[in-house]
Amino acid sequence: MAKGKRYDETFKQETVKYILENNKPVAQVARETGVNENTLHGWIKKYSQQPEVKAAQTFSDSDAELKALKKQLRELEEENEILKKAMHYFAKSPR
Predict the structure, then answer these.
(1) What was the pLDDT predicted at 80?
(2) Which of 5, 21, 4 is nearest to 64 (CA)?
(3) pLDDT of residue 71
(4) Which of 11, 21, 37, 67 is the most exposed place for a label (fewest CB within 10 A)?
(5) Distance of alpha carbon 61 from alpha carbon 66, whole angstroms
(6) Is 8 helix (H, G, I), strand (E, B) or coil?
(7) Which among 22, 11, 24, 12 is positioned nearest to 48, based on CA atoms?
(8) Distance separating alpha carbons of residues 12 and 72, to the nearest angstrom
(9) Nearest-CA neighbor of 24 among 37, 10, 39?
């Protein structure tokens, strides 16, 4: 019987790093690389605990957190502007 393709460890680690850094769907990466989707899930499970891959994962987590905080800041600034306008409106004395 013929065995499936063999990939070297570096390729596996780089592929997992690519998936985690870019938050790409596994199915999309499977189509791009020609690797079976289930194989990629196995690689993620195996290699996501390694320090260099974990660093990539942490980066994407902090990137997502930064994005969420920027959105929250923008919303709060808009609310602040609305409150300032309301304050000026109610502070005017009737003539």
Answers:
(1) 95
(2) 21
(3) 92
(4) 67
(5) 9
(6) coil
(7) 12
(8) 37
(9) 37
**Tokens 């063999």 -> residue:** 6
CA dihedral 86, 87, 89, 90 (to 10 degrees): 110
Give the whole-angstrom CA distance, residue 11 versus residue 38: 16
Instruction: Note the pLDDT tens digit of each residue in 15-65.
Output: 988 888 888 889 999 999 999 999 999 998 888 776 666 665 656 667 778
Task: Judge contact between 26 and 37, C-beta under 8 A.
Answer: yes
Domain ranges, ordered by start, for the chain: 9-91
CA–CA gap between residue 35 and residue 25 (Å, rounded) = 13
pLDDT in the model for residue 58: 56
Instruction: Please count the other Cβ atoms lying within 10 Å of the Cβ belonging to residue 21.
Output: 15
Residue 28 has which token pair?
């999309």
